């Protein structure tokens, strides 16, 4: 367990997963073991969304790849690169066409192994600041590699009457629940505020949209994404790709408690 600290703020990271963000004695992260979801956060890469109806196959310029829902990155293990009192960097590396055991097989999937036809390196950097927590994702891969990226953190909520506000809309948790597994889409939204008794602002950089999901009243997943996968059928999922340039790319998420 890696612990980052500043006055009135504490972050706990377990093998790369954000399992606690406490500010002024308020816990903002959904706790593993509580109803709603078995995790606290994860990443969706190199694809977002379901692939079952496309026989778990997605197109790439180097040929088809086998991917389960939300990609294969979550099947890899983070290693710690470096850490100090306020910063921690974790990393995953993947070698092209390496077959990765699918943890959803056989109970929730018919494919036992996943693979992707490109090398990549994926870093996750946590930095605790006086304004809150900054999370940076750094992708390094060959020029032209296609990808989608989504960050999937879960936040504690108080009840079905909890609201999420953006510049143009306010959504209640019960409205998000009504959408079901497809998730509630907020197009071209890069900032939102979770309206708990202790509000939390989520700001993003590089991501294009937000996707919202929950099945319970006490948790809300607020997911920055580069592409909303339900805008297309599963066999057309590749329409949502971004493509690597010559340099690594960075995406950021900022968690800012209103009262610090």
Automatic annotation (TrEMBL):
UniProt key word Calcium: yes
Keywords annotated in UniProt: Calcium
GO biological process: carbohydrate metabolic process
MF terms (GO), sorted A to Z: carbohydrate binding; isomerase activity
Highest taxon of source: Bacteria
Keyword Calcium: yes
Cofactor dependence: Ca(2+)
Subunit comment: Monomer.
Name of the protein: Aldose 1-epimerase
Phylogenetic classification of the source organism: Bacteria, Pseudomonadati, Bacteroidota, Flavobacteriia, Flavobacteriales
